[in-house]
Amino acid sequence: MDALRVGGLTPLTTIDFPGRLAAVVFCQGCPWRCGYCHNPHLIPAGAPPALRWDEVLAFLGRRRGLLDGVVFSGGEPTLQAALPEALREVRAQGFETALHTAGMYPERLAAVLPLLDWVGLDVKAPAEHYDAVTGTPGSGERMAQSLDLLLASGVDHECRTTWHPGLFGEDELDRLDAGLKQRGVRRWQVQDCRLDSIRSG
């Protein structure tokens, strides 16, 4: 099996895995094209890795007792078939595991949920705006399936939405909030997006 393709590593974070001191592994590759993406260098799946996976494991081995957990972010971690084995290897070192995902591969998310302690799920937009925000037809339906799986799993989680009025209106943001609450989401965060950071397609 191919090793995880790593686009970067943050050695220490206090904000990406609630209540834990963690490292963040940035996974290379994402098939969506959100105009406000703040990690565009991670989009190409075939880009040369910034670090080898064995180098990341060696780093984590030196951080046992200092870090509580490891976050797999991106890019989109579930794009990579190597993610489940990477999660198992990290857990075998005694770390808790977290995932940042946009929910674009529901079946792959279902496969790794038993290996996770926390999930941050990006909810990009109300359903009628999803394809425009992601640049990908059918993206909203896939996220909705992933949200259902996450809610049913019992894994601790948070939903997040990056928003600017240039993406969709505040009234639609309010309706998104209401819809998520109705589905059972208890934690939802809105992240501001500067209009000048939105790239034209």
From TrEMBL:
InterPro entries per the UniProt record, alphabetical: Aldolase_TIM (IPR013785), NrdG2 (IPR012840), Organic_radical-activating (IPR034457), rSAM (IPR007197), rSAM_sf (IPR058240)
One of the record's GO molecular function terms: 4 iron, 4 sulfur cluster binding
The entry's keywords: 4Fe-4S, Iron, Iron-sulfur, Metal-binding, S-adenosyl-L-methionine
Needed cofactors: [4Fe-4S] cluster
Residue intervals of the Radical SAM core domain: 16-201
One Pfam family hit: Radical_SAM
Keyword Transcription regulation included in the entry's annotation: no
Keyword hit for Signal: no
UniProt xrefs under Gene3D superfamilies: Aldolase class I (3.20.20.70)
Protein name, UniProt field: Anaerobic ribonucleoside-triphosphate reductase activating protein
Organism listed in the record: Pseudothauera rhizosphaerae
